[in-house]
Amino acid sequence: MDYQNYYNAFRELILIADKISGTGLISDFESRQKWALDLFFQLRNRSKTILSLLPEDGAIESKTYDLSAIACLTRSLGEIYEAFYYFGIDRIEEPEAMLRFLLMKIHQESELEEIQKKFRYEEFDIKLIKESIRSLRDEAKRRYSELSSLEGYEIYDLINQGKDKFRKTLKHNKGRCLDRKTINRRIFERIHENQEIPGVGKIDLDKLEKIFEAMDTYLSNHIHVSPLAVSESAYEVMIGDKSKHFYKLLIRHNSFFLGSAIFDIAEMQNNPRISDNSKELVAESVIGYLRDLLS
Question: What would the pLDDT profile of 115-143 be if each residue is shown by its tens digit?
C-alpha cells in the first residue's frame, strides 16, 4: 500500500478504538481491568496526537513536520502498550496484579523521594515519603509471602533483596518485576500462540525481537538528535521524501500496538461493537506488519 492508505487505515483504527472505549464504564471492571482500560485510553489519545503530526497527501510537503516529535511519541506509545500488557493483559490473577501495582507504586514514590532531595525539600516532606515507601514495601512483602509458594512467582524474589539492590533493580525495570525484553517476548508469544502468518508460517520470535530492538534504536536516534536523525531531517527539508518512508514505517509500528490493544480490549469486554470489516482492518494492522517484517 502507499502512504495515504496506511494513513487512512491508522485513522480508522483510532475510530475503532473510540467505539470500543464507549462500550463499558470503568466501574464495571475489576482493578486490573480498570488499569488496562485507562492505559487503552492513553494509547488511543497518543495515537490521535501522532496522527495530528503526520502529513496527508496534498498537504504542504513534509519539511513542515517534526520527525523527532513523531519518533518520541511512537516510542512512548510502544511503552504504554508494554504497561497495558503487563498490568492488564498478561495471564495473572488479581492478587498478583495487585503485587505488580505495589511494586510500581514503590518505584514511583522512590523516584519522587529522589526528586525531593535534589530540589532540597523540607526534611519533614522527605520523611513522609520514606514512611510511605516503607509501608508499601511491607505490604508488598506480605502479599509476596502469600504467593511465593506457587509456581512462577520467583520473578518477585527481588522483594527480598536488600534495600539498595531492591530499589536499583526496580529502577532498572521501570518499577516492574520483569524487564522490557521479557515483557516484549511475552507479547510476541501471545500472538505466536494464536496466529500463523500467510507466507511466513509460525512467528520467528528471536528474529522478531531483534527487529523491534532495531526499531527502538532507530527511534532513539531521532529522539536524541543523532547524525542519522540530522541527515534524515535535512533530506526532508532540502529534498522531501516522496515515498514518505519514515512516516509510513512509524504509522505501521504504531498501528501494530494500537491494533493489538484493540484485540485485547475486545476480548476483555466480550462482544464489543466491532464490524467484520473493522476486525479485518485490525488484524491486518498487526499480522500484516509482522508478515512484512519477517518475510
Answer: 999 999 999 999 999 999 999 999 999 99
Same domain, residue pair 232 and 190: yes
Q: Which long-range contacts (CB under 8 A, 24 or more apart) does 199-207 make?
A: 199/291, 199/295, 200/290, 200/291, 200/294, 200/295, 203/290, 203/294, 204/294, 207/294
Measured CA distances, 12 to 47, 99, 107, 253 (Å): 11, 36, 37, 15
Output the CA–CA distances (angstroms, integers) from residue 169 to 58, 75, 76, 239, in the order listed: 50, 22, 22, 46
Final residue of a structural domain among 144, 172, 200: 172
Q: State the total domains in the chain.
A: 2
Q: How far apart are CA 177 and CA 152, in angstroms?
A: 12
Quote the domain boundaries for residue 119.
94-172
pTM of the predicted model as reported, rounded to 2 decimal places = 0.91
**Residue 101 shares a structural domain with residue 161:** yes
Task: Give the model's pLDDT for residue 289.
Answer: 95
**C-alpha atoms less than 13 angstroms from C-alpha of 206 in its C-beta half-sphere:** 0
Task: Say if residue 27 is in the same domain as residue 87.
Answer: yes
Within its chain, how far is the Cα of 226 from the centroid?
Answer: 24
Domain termination residue (choose one: 137, 172, 207): 172
Cell of residue 79, nine digits: 511503552
Torsion sign over Cα 253, 257, 260, 266: negative
CB 197 within 8 A of CB 31: no
